[in-house]
């Protein structure tokens, strides 16, 4: 089975200094690698940031991306999260056409089914927040598309490797595995 279109989820621990994101994204672009998803944020150590990104390609592409990242002085460590058991989340904010009445009730029911929440209400629209796996977020988008999506914004994917023998419990997110 070919994995030429396999989505690799990478986590790069980098020094939290100006220009790191530009340097890394420029390096990847100059070598013809496309970033499918990107999220960057400070870690538990304010001197470090974590860049979580998705690149699409085969094992050769993954290996080249890793090698190039590891050459950058401000990169502390690179981890292929997709080769481990991990927890991932995407965040979606979406404005849906939903005039008061039965349509708004239908939209509210969908939000409840997907365990989201309505975060803003206007006369003819609602703003909804949904978080979860990429497939859940995409499924929600497809379910509300017929109502009329007025605006949509998504974060890049974030992920952490699970600890050994860990369930889906919120108290055990796998942070210890990433620090090892």
UniProtKB/TrEMBL annotation:
<keyword id="KW-0028">Amino-acid biosynthesis</keyword>
<dbReference type="InterPro" id="IPR039557">
    <property type="entry name" value="AHAS_ACT"/>
</dbReference>
<comment type="function">
    <text>Catalyzes the conversion of 2 pyruvate molecules into acetolactate in the first common step of the biosynthetic pathway of the branched-amino acids such as leucine, isoleucine, and valine.</text>
</comment>
<keyword id="KW-0100">Branched-chain amino acid biosynthesis</keyword>
<comment type="subunit">
    <text>Dimer of large and small chains.</text>
</comment>
<dbReference type="Pfam" id="PF10369">
    <property type="entry name" value="ALS_ss_C"/>
</dbReference>
<keyword id="KW-0808">Transferase</keyword>
<dbReference type="GO" id="GO:0003984">
    <property type="term" value="F:acetolactate synthase activity"/>
</dbReference>
<dbReference type="InterPro" id="IPR045865">
    <property type="entry name" value="ACT-like_dom_sf"/>
</dbReference>
<dbReference type="InterPro" id="IPR002912">
    <property type="entry name" value="ACT_dom"/>
</dbReference>
<feature type="domain" description="ACT">
    <location>
        <begin position="9"/>
        <end position="83"/>
    </location>
</feature>
<comment type="similarity">
    <text>Belongs to the acetolactate synthase small subunit family.</text>
</comment>
<dbReference type="InterPro" id="IPR027271">
    <property type="entry name" value="Acetolactate_synth/TF_NikR_C"/>
</dbReference>
<dbReference type="InterPro" id="IPR019455">
    <property type="entry name" value="Acetolactate_synth_ssu_C"/>
</dbReference>
<dbReference type="Pfam" id="PF22629">
    <property type="entry name" value="ACT_AHAS_ss"/>
</dbReference>
<comment type="pathway">
    <text>Amino-acid biosynthesis; L-valine biosynthesis; L-valine from pyruvate: step 1/4.</text>
</comment>
<dbReference type="InterPro" id="IPR054480">
    <property type="entry name" value="AHAS_small-like_ACT"/>
</dbReference>
<comment type="pathway">
    <text>Amino-acid biosynthesis; L-isoleucine biosynthesis; L-isoleucine from 2-oxobutanoate: step 1/4.</text>
</comment>
<dbReference type="InterPro" id="IPR004789">
    <property type="entry name" value="Acetalactate_synth_ssu"/>
</dbReference>
<protein>
    <recommendedName>
        <fullName>Acetolactate synthase small subunit</fullName>
        <ecNumber>2.2.1.6</ecNumber>
    </recommendedName>
</protein>
């Amino acid at each position: 089975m070919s994995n030429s279109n396999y989505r690799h989820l990478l986590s790069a621990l980098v020094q939290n200094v100006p220009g790191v994101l530009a340097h890394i994204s420029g390096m990847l672009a100059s070598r013809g690698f496309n970033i499918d998803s990107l999220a960057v944020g400070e870690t538990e150590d304010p001197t470090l940031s974590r860049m979580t990104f998705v690149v699409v390609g085969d094992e050769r592409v993954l290996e080249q991306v890793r090698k190039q990242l590891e050459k950058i002085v401000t990169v502390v460590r690179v981890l292929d999260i997709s080769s481990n058991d991990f927890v991932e989340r995407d965040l979606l904010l979406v404005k849906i056409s939903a005039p008061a009445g039965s349509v708004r009730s239908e939209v509210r029911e969908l939000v409840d089914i997907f365990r989201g929440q309505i975060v803003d209400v206007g006369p003819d629209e609602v703003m909804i927040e949904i978080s979860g796996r990429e497939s859940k977020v995409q499924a929600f988008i497809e379910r509300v598309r017929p109502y009329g999506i007025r605006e949509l914004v998504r974060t890049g994917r974030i992920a952490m490797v699970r600890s050994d023998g860990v369930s889906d419990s919120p108290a055990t997110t796998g942070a210890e595995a990433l620090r090892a």
